[in-house]
Amino acid sequence: MDGGWWRNAWPEDGFAEGAHMDFHLSEEHRLIQDTVRSFASTEILPVAAELDRDARFPAEIIRRASELGLLGMMVPPEYGGAGLDTISYLIAIEEIARACAGTSVIISVNNSLVCDPILRYGTEDQKRRYLPDLAQGRKLGCYCLTEPEAGSDAASIQTTAREDGEEWVLNGTKVFVTNGVEAEICIVYARSEPEPGARGISAFIVEKDRPGISVGKVERKLGIKASSTAEIHLEDCRIPKENLLGRRGEGFRIALSTLDGGRLGIAAQALGIARACLEESIAYARERRQFGQPIASFQAIQWWIADMATRIEAARLLVYRAASLRDRGRAYTKEAAMAKLFASETAMWAAHKAVQIHGGYGYIQDYPAERHFRDAKITEIYEGTSEIQRLVIARHVLGVR
Prior knowledge:
Blueprint: H1 27-54, H2 59-67, H3 86-99, H4 101-121, H5 124-135, E1 141-144, E2 160-164, E3 167-178, E4 185-191, E5 201-207, E6 213-218, E7 229-240, E8 244-245, H6 251-287, E9 289-290, E10 293-294, H7 299-327, H8 333-358, H9 368-378, H10 386-398
Parallel strand pairs: 1-4
Antiparallel strand pairs: 2-3, 3-7, 4-5, 5-8, 6-7, 9-10
Helix pairs in contact: 1-3, 3-4, 3-6, 4-5, 4-6, 6-7, 6-8, 6-9, 7-8, 8-9, 8-10
């Protein structure tokens, strides 16, 4: 794909005078959007409330998503993927999140946090061994970085990786692992060197069926209940030396670069949640009557909806700009942080206004506004809190490291 609608949208150093701006989706992007929107509307949206209520993993939906190529969208065809660009992937995540945020994060993690680092840092043997199963949905992946004492300060992880002959022996506990229950392939970050901080961390590919790795506590969450969030315990878990991902001691760099892409997936998820809030608020405001007229005729409601629509459009432009930079092989860490920050805070703001527009009905589970309010909050937290995003942005803008 040639970049389609975003081609020439952002010159290298900002908006050059007279630069051509093309904000139209390409035919291929529109086809992806239409296909995933239809899938989400007909197969996900009707069961989204039930998945949330029962905290049930959507196994059949994930199987159908894999048939559509949504589990490995950016993986090249030679490794079993769809070979699409980042914008295509984010279009798909937005459409799925508009129907069910929990389902969207299952798919986002598999694409951004598992397939992507294997594709970028894996050996040819690792790519051929793991990517086809992941991209075609035969196996699901998870990302194991956070620990009980290492959240935003990821460089302080304590999980260890010790060499023993032709094997690595891993010990430690990971928390808040999305897909932790169902995943069969884990990207695990562990301390392989005696040096403290980032320099001593390496990345490993760990199959869940190996002795010594187990699922611990499964969290009961405020939202995104269709996806599991669990502890992963490693107790003398032995893996072959060839399961080292990238170079020894390179794990922290791999983790951070992977999170850049992951943040775009979460930003697209936030867009989908925000769009659901807008669309449902419009429908409700047209239908609900008070004081003899639809509440859509009241200026306060109109302004909230106008602000929702404007913020969503602005967030989408930030998301697609970062995606365009990524697809052109340019640095995009700052832009990914901006997109994730603004889209997640837009989702939370839109969800708050959607509940307010719905009034008392927004507070009960018969209406989806309540679910969107709960789902939106996590987008401000995982894959880097809003505070961390501001820190990343500020350091780039100020030139401070």
